[in-house]
Amino acid sequence: MNIKILTPEYVVFEGEVDSVLLPGKNGEFHIMKNHAGIVSSLIGGKVKLYTKSVDEVYNKYFTKENEKDSVFSYPIKSGVVEFNHNKGIILCE
Questions:
Q1: Which residues in the chain belong to E strands, given as ranges?
Q2: Which residue in 5, 37, 44, 48 has a CA-CA distance of 20 to 30 Å to 86?
Q3: What residues make up the domain containing 6?
Q4: Which residues of 16-51 are buried (b: 16+ CB within 10 A; e: fewer)?
Q5: Closest to 13 in 3D by CA, of 2, 22, 28
Q6: pTM for this structure?
Q7: Interval 84-93 mean pLDDT
């Protein structure tokens, strides 16, 4: 599935991921391939991408969560996510 993470200043990430874990108002939620369409607000926390690697262009924005698993995190203050047809856009600050 394709995920794009945008801030007002720059594109944080754009590419294919296996899944994404997001900090929602009512707790974290996981979006996986073929997830139903969703629009949700996000609170402060970490956006976690489950993917084999992050392109060099975007690597500077991410922290690798675990050496064993391929989980990359990006801290946010707030935001919104829209996901539909295996494409997601996360607008955040």
A1: 2-6, 11-16, 19-24, 27-32, 38-42, 45-50, 63-64, 71-76, 79-84, 87-92
A2: 44
A3: 2-92
A4: ebebbbbbeeeeebebeeebeeeeeebeebbbbbbb
A5: 2
A6: 0.94
A7: 98
pLDDT tens by residue, 24-41: 999 999 999 999 999 999
Cβ-based neighbour number of residue 52 at 10 Å = 8
Helix (H) or strand (E) holding 57: helix 56-59
Place of tokens 């690798």: 64
CATH number of the structural domain spanning residue 48: 2.60.15.10
- Using CA atoms, how far apart are residues 32 and 9, in angstroms rounded to an integer? 27
Report angle CA 38, 44, 50 to the nearest 5 degrees.
60
Number of domains in the chain: 1
